[in-house]
Specification:
By secondary structure, this protein is an alpha+beta fold. The protein has two domains: about 210 residues, Cytochrome Bc1 Complex, Chain A, domain 1 (2-Layer Sandwich); about 190 residues, Metalloenzyme, LuxS/M16 peptidase-like (Cytochrome Bc1 Complex, Chain A, domain 1), CATH 3.30.830.10. The chain contains 18 helices and eleven strands. The strands form two sheets. The chain has a six-stranded mixed β-sheet, with helices on both faces. A hairpin with a 4-residue loop joins strand 4 and strand 5.
């Protein structure tokens, strides 16, 4: 029988782990600015290089500062559509050959579109870094956008919307909720686009969008891994420097007006159980409250020991899950969210009220020192462990650079460490108010007989199989709606 550790031993282990996290976090955060080499080419392309020789691998990532927030009315989802087109090849490598070419060279590639940016990557063995850069420079300047490339991919995206949104109750609910939460700002429409807009795209729409936003002055190139930056930079300049600068993309000027009362929306959809979503307008990472909001999200929803799981799932046994979500990595103010899935026999109403009761408790009573430190430890450890992967490290740099500046990462952990229990209570009181809240409830319905039969023409349209890119990707959080493959 295994002997239980003595309290003194547990305390010693806890101190040792805290010291390890503190040392690693301090070193990582303090040296991040020194580890990244930044260069801006004459055509406006920002190049971030990071030497990480821990393994003979390299990640090559290109981040374009364009997402669904940049789309005009009537063309929602066109950023995502263009992302699909970027895999259709160039005159150099031929139609539909991009991913196959990467795979033949032992690499993997993919991309994703969000409300704020579109990102592409290839991960290779380190000796293929120049080859990967050649591929990205080629499609930045010479993408095939002919009608024969456009039409098949257009159908793929139409089908993707059916599979990823319309057949997924949680995603339908999240889509309707965001359209209710944002009245003016383009964050209100889905990254994948509204159905009628998708169906209305033309090849000319894609060509114009590509010329407007896929220019070096609207992009960041990030290369991290087993590289020598002084050797690689001249090669990057030779490949990308000859791509002409584009016109400055139009700015998004719309500011979401303050919400002046609770909004509620319900969605009836074929499903087994209801869902409860509640979101609050919240600032982005350039705001001083972002660190306290992140700690608050972990206190409420940071795992099975967090308040929502303990109170609603474990003690009251009302829901199968209960969580909180906040990410400030957006160009404009976005959302703080709560969600829960009621158990059979439990109502959405009682689960919703249980969520608000936990929010009310945080607002009335300061969190404990133990809860505060646990949340900070979780955030710090995730931040440090993410940097063990050159891919995830480059991804972190790319996301922050695309919405603000990668240099803000250097102060991220210091900001988290400075958060106090008073700060957490203050932001909960300031932002998580009924007047700033939008609640969305999924009301399950039963399938009709025709749909249940599964016969084509009786409620179940015949659908082609997903393409390879759709199979290896997944939508982001249904509640927060932060991206599409």
């Amino acid at each position: 029988m295994r002997q239980k550790p003595r309290p003194v031993l547990l305390w010693t282990i806890a101190l040792a782990m805290a010291l390890v996290f503190w040392t690693a976090a301090s070193t990582g955060a303090a040296s991040l600015a020194d580890r990244v080499s930044e260069t801006v080419l004459p055509n406006g392309l920002k190049v971030l290089l990071m030497e990480e020789p821990k393994a003979p691998v390299v990640t090559i990532q290109v981040w374009y500062k364009v997402g669904s927030r940049n789309e005009p009315v009537g063309k929602t989802g066109i950023s995502h559509m263009l992302e699909h087109m970027m895999f259709n090849g160039t005159p150099t490598i031929g139609p539909k050959q991009f991913s196959l070419t990467v795979q033949r060279n032992g690499g993997v590639d993919n991309a994703h579109t969000t409300s704020d940016y579109t990102a592409y990557y290839e991960d290779f063995a380190a000796d293929r870094v120049l080859f990967g850069l050649e591929l990205e420079a080629d499609r930045m300047a010479h993408l095939l956008l002919g009608e024969k490339e456009f039409q098949p991919e257009h159908q793929v995206v139409i089908e993707e919307r059916r599979l990823r949104i319309e057949d997924q109750p949680a995603n339908v609910l999240g889509e309707v909720m965001r359209a209710t939460t944002f009245l003016a700002h383009p964050y209100r429409w889905p990254v994948i686009g509204w159905p009628s807009d998708i169906e209305g795209y033309t090849r000319e729409d894609l060509v114009q969008y590509y010329r407007t936003y896929y220019a070096p002055n609207n992009a960041s190139l990030i290369v991290a891994g087993d590289i020598k930056k002084d050797d690689l930079l001249p090669k990057i300049q030779a490949l990308f420097g000859k791509i002409p600068r584009g016109p400055d993309p139009p700015k998004v000027v719309t500011v979401e007006p303050p919400q002046r009362g609770e909004r509620r929306v319900s969605v009836k959809k074929e499903a087994e159980l209801p869902l409860v979503f509640a979101v609050y307008h919240a600032p982005n990472l350039t705001h001083p409250d972002t660190h306290a909001l992140e700690v608050l999200a972990y206190v409420l929803g940071g795992g099975q020991s967090a308040r929502l799981h303990q109170g609603i799932v474990y003690e009251k046994q009302l829901a199968s899950y209960a969580s909180a979500d906040y990410s400030g990595v957006h160009v404009d103010p976005y959302l703080f969210g709560l969600s829960a899935g009621p158990l059979p026999g439990k109502t959405a109403e009682e689960v919703e009220q249980a969520l608000y009761a936990e929010v009310d408790r945080v607002q009335r009573e300061p969190i404990t020192d133990r809860e505060l430190q646990k949340a900070k430890n979780q955030i710090e450890s995730e931040f440090i462990f993410a940097q063990d992967s050159v891919h995830m490290l480059a991804n972190l740099l790319g996301a922050w650079e695309s919405v603000a500046s990668w240099k803000l990462l250097a102060g991220y952990l210091d900001g988290i460490r400075k958060v106090t229990a008073v700060d957490v209570q203050r932001v909960a009181r300031l932002y998580l108010t009924p007047d700033n809240r939008t609640a969305a409830i999924l009301i399950p319905t039963k399938p009709d007989a025709a749909a249940a039969s599964g016969e084509p023409g009786k409620g179940q349209p015949m659908r082609p199989p997903m393409d390879t890119k759709m199979q290896r990707s997944a939508l982001r959080s249904p509640m927060m709606g932060q991206g599409a493959p």
